[in-house]
Design a protein that fits this description.
- The complex is a heterodimer.
- Chain A is mostly helical.
- Chain A is 77% helix and 0% strand.
- The mean pLDDT of chain A is 80.
- Chain B is mainly alpha-helical.
- Chain B contains 12 helices and no strands.
- In chain B, helix 7 (155-164) runs antiparallel to helix 8 (170-186).
- Chain B is rod-shaped and about 145 Å long.
- Chain B starts with a helix and ends with a helix.
- The chains are: A mainly alpha, B mainly alpha.
- At the A-B interface, helix 2, helix 3, helix 4, helix 7 and helix 8 of A face helix 1, helix 3 and helix 4 of B.
């Protein structure tokens, strides 16, 4: 896991490799099964477990990106805990599986993070509308920048003539996005809060 | 917004400002409302950019799942099917166990105690249809009639007749006792028959009667419990006793018993 975390921090293609390996490792460790067994008595289906696994994985990646993990970090346990909390929150909103909520009521280890994740989910639609205002090239360049690809790699991926051109395009797209948001303080407020 | 200002805000978000730069930036932030608004816009832009990365990650997750939808994934996709397989195995296991149980029980029923019983019962059958010592030649008429009843399988009548008949000799008395014991055995009074044979065994002073009673007793006991170690030891003893009148019969029975034990044992091997 340590090596994967290093790869993740390297960004770019290393990050992609690490993300895929972590994902597959967690799958092979039977996380979906564990989640399924955990939610099955509370009307959870295998599909729910699959969805929870993926959502929990995204939260986990976010946590790893922010470096919010301890030295003796157990990705599997953490992911399962996230999934349980996500299910708890989901069932709360759906008014189902109250027993499940009661059982895991004290498991607050990752609940805040999950709440945050749920809020982000709610904001997704909002974000999607903003994204739609960007050109495809801008979307791609900003994404690659967020994924810590170097400007040289971005240039290569986007068939740009040079690293300098990548920097230029990235700056232009980023500035365009900030300008778009700066003109919409309410939207910014909603996103940031 | 100039590029320098833009970069400064980005550097602040990334935590790339030096202590002095950070201090200066914070001071400006306190007094410059426009800067605060711009910072918020930058933060929001970061969220949007992060969402782009998340979208891409979701797409890649779908691709990672694609090969897993086959057979390569060990745990996850296999969750439900695996459970199905386990359930199927359990179902087949239960069905197989039930079948084995039914076959086993019927096998035991046919081949073991019942089959064994048949072996002993066969030896208990028809012995009095013709007497073994040619007694019929000088037999009293009343006793001959009892034999005829016995040969006809009129067990109740045999029992009644033996009670009424007054034996003229010890030999006749023993013959009647055997007829009585055997008739009781025939009508299913095994315990009583066994007592009769025990009685003959205890009171007879003729080797013929003693050996015969003992043999009959062993047969009845083995019929009720073919694999009782105590009864089998008695059978062994008779089979090894060269002076016993039923030695050869016991040896024959023993060889049949080996077959029975083999049959019985097959169920457990």
């Amino acid at each position: 896991m340590e090596n994967l975390l290093v790869l993740l921090r390297n960004g770019g293609n290393d990050r992609y490799t690490a993300q895929e390996k972590i994902y597959k490792q967690l799958r092979d460790q039977g996380c979906v099964n564990i989640i399924y067994r955990s939610i099955e008595p509370y009307r959870g289906t295998l599909q729910d477990a699959e969805d929870l696994f993926q959502e929990a994985y995204l939260v986990l990646m976010k946590k790893l990106d922010k470096g919010e993990h301890q030295d003796e970090f157990n990705a599997k346990n953490y992911l399962v805990a996230i999934a349980r909390n996500l299910w708890k929150n989901t069932s709360r909103s759906n008014k189902v599986a109250e027993d499940y909520q009661n059982e895991y009521a004290n498991d607050t280890s990752v609940s805040l993070y999950c709440d945050e994740h749920l809020e982000r989910q709610e904001r997704r639609k909002l974000v999607d509308s903003i994204i739609s205002s960007l050109t495809d090239q801008c979307k791609e360049i900003l994404r690659l920048w967020m994924e810590d690809f170097s400007m040289r790699e971005i240039a290569a991926r986007l068939d740009l003539s040079s690293e300098r051109m990548a920097i230029k395009y990235k700056y232009r797209c980023h500035k365009r996005l900030v300008k778009y948001l700066a003109g919409r303080p309410n939207l910014v407020n909603e996103l940031n809060n | 917004m100039g590029s320098k200002k833009f970069d400064r805000i980005e550097a602040f978000i990334d935590g790339r400002l030096s202590d002095d730069e950070l201090k200066e930036f914070m001071e400006r932030l306190e007094v410059d409302e426009k800067l605060r608004e711009k910072l918020e816009a930058h933060k929001a832009a970061r969220l949007v950019a992060e969402s782009l990365a998340e979208h891409e990650l979701r797409d890649r997750m779908k691709k990672w799942e694609a090969p897993n939808s086959g057979t390569s994934d060990k745990e996850t996709k296999g969750a439900a099917p695996k459970q199905g397989v386990v359930r199927r195995i359990i179902s087949y296991g239960i069905a197989a166990s039930l079948l084995a149980f039914v076959v086993g029980v019927s096998y035991l029923y046919v081949d073991s105690p019942r089959h064994a019983s048949n072996v002993f019962a066969e030896r208990n059958t028809g012995e009095y249809t013709l007497t073994e010592r040619g007694m019929e030649q000088d037999m009293p008429i009343d006793l001959r009639e009892i034999y005829q009843l016995y040969a006809a399988g009129e067990w109740e009548k045999v029992i009644e007749a033996t009670r009424q008949y007054q034996p003229l000799s010890t030999d006749e008395e023993m013959t009647l006792n055997f007829l009585l014991a055997d008739s009781k055995y025939r009508i299913g009074k095994i315990g009583v028959a066994l007592d009769e044979y025990n009685n003959i065994f205890a009171t007879a002073d003729d080797r013929w009667h003693i050996d015969r009673a003992e043999w009959k007793k062993v047969l009845i006991q083995l019929e009720s419990d073919p694999f009782n170690q105590e009864y089998l030891i008695e059978l062994d003893r008779i089979a090894e006793d060269t002076n016993h009148l039923y030695q050869r019969a016991a040896q024959g029975l023993k060889s049949e018993m080996r077959g029975l034990r083999f049959t019985f044992g097959r169920l457990f091997i």
